[in-house]
């Protein structure tokens, strides 16, 4: 069964135009071509990225966060309560008022304390600023280096300036060592992202991120197997052109450098719009959709490859809408740029302020109970003083 499935999967009519096949990509006369078996190299590369990320975050990201002044807000932990913990983990993190009343009777705890417990327990699961900074700094480092490497790989190639050169001589296009490593490293990195996505900060577009990673892995792998490598390198370069700017804006945002964050975000928005909504659809997709049919008739692989590109373009439009929503925050009176994809916890600033007010009220009550009142005044005088304030 497996052999039959493998034979069907690798049949030439799915991967190549009529008259072309795997025999055309056999190494000969000193010329080397891409092979599907080469993709196994990406697995140890992905493992290397996962290990390297742990080292990077500990040895580079944490000291960098300290140098930039990334601060952590101390969060009050929820007291241990087996009944509430079980309800939190197995039922819901957001109990209804009816559920709160039931839990209050079951635990002999007031409803207000139940609400506070769930708020504190949810806050415990919120990712810290340091965790988000570490992730952003790792992705920033890779995307920046990948963009520089991509430019170095493509800057002297004729298809970088004339897209018709992408298909000249297809599919007999010799594989260059620089293209080999560019592909293996990019694909290995996206595989590592797919493995680590479960432990990373979950954002509003979590599902879209999964779709993007899977589509990117399929796109890079397929373009490698059928020797669409010239088009593939251009696609990877276009995507890396703006990603490092977004990650650097996040880093400065987490560090509290709001103005720097805003300026970088403006630059990111401009580059994103140009590369993802102009260059990608009107140059890259035009190159892969229009030019090939002038050389050979359409086939399954042609539609599959372009279908993945259109899927990525839909995601670009989705993210462009989020970027425009963030751009509203640049209006007068708005000086904070947040990632619209971030894991915005239901505990907003007003709720956090309520938490602080409750803690202060508890501390004052404890001090008054013990006879220790601020300013050396009696309870009556002190309360009167606060009313005047």
Automatic annotation (TrEMBL):
DNA-binding region: 69-129
Lineage: Eukaryota, Metazoa, Chordata, Craniata, Vertebrata
Membrane topology value: Multi-pass membrane protein
InterPro entries registered for this protein in UniProt: HD, Homeodomain-like_sf, Lag1/Lac1-like, TLC-dom
Composition bias, Acidic residues: 345-363
Pathway: Sphingolipid metabolism; Lipid metabolism; sphingolipid metabolism
Matches recorded under Pfam families: Homeodomain, TRAM_LAG1_CLN8
Protein name: Ceramide synthase 2a
């Amino acid at each position: 069964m497996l052999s039959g499935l493998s034979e069907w999967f690798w049949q030439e009519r799915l991967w190549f135009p009529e008259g072309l096949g795997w025999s055309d990509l056999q190494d000969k006369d000193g010329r080397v071509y891409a092979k599907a078996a080469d993709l196994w190299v990406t697995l140890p590369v992905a493992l290397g990225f996962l290990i390297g990320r742990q080292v990077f975050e500990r040895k580079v990201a944490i000291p960098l966060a300290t140098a930039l002044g990334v601060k952590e807000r101390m969060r009050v932990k929820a007291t241990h309560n087996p009944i509430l913990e079980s309800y939190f983990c197995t039922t819901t993190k957001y109990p209804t008022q009816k559920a709160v009343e039931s839990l209050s009777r079951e635990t002999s705890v007031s409803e207000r304390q139940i609400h506070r417990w769930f708020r504190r327990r949810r806050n415990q699961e919120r990712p810290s600023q340091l965790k988000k900074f570490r992730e952003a700094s790792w992705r920033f480092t890779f995307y920046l280096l990948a963009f520089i490497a991509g430019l170095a790989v493509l800057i002297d190639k004729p298809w970088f300036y004339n897209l018709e050169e992408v298909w000249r001589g297809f599919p007999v296009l010799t594989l260059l060592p620089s293209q080999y490593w560019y592909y293996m490293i990019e694909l290995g990195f996206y595989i590592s992202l797919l493995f680590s996505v479960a432990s990373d900060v979950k954002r509003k577009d979590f599902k879209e991120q999964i779709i993007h990673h899977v589509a990117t892995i399929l796109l890079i792998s397929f373009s490698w197997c059928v020797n669409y490598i010239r088009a593939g390198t251009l696609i990877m370069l276009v995507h890396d052109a703006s990603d490092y700017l977004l990650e650097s804006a996040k880093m400065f945002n987490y560090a509290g450098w709001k103005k720097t964050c805003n300026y970088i975000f403006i630059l990111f928005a401009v580059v994103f719009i140009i590369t993802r909504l102009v260059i990608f659809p009107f140059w890259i997709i035009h190159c892969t959709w229009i030019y090939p049919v002038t050389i050979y008739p359409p086939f399954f692989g042609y539609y599959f490859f372009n279908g993945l590109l259109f899927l990525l373009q839909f995601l670009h439009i989705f993210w462009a809408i989020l970027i425009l929503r963030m751009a509203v925050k640049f209006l007068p009176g708005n000086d904070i740029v947040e990632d619209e994809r971030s894991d915005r916890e239901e505990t907003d600033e007003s709720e956090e302020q309520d938490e602080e007010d409750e803690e202060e009220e508890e501390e004052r009550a404890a001090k008054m109970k013990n006879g220790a009142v601020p300013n050396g005044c009696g309870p009556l005088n002190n309360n009167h003083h606060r009313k005047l304030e």
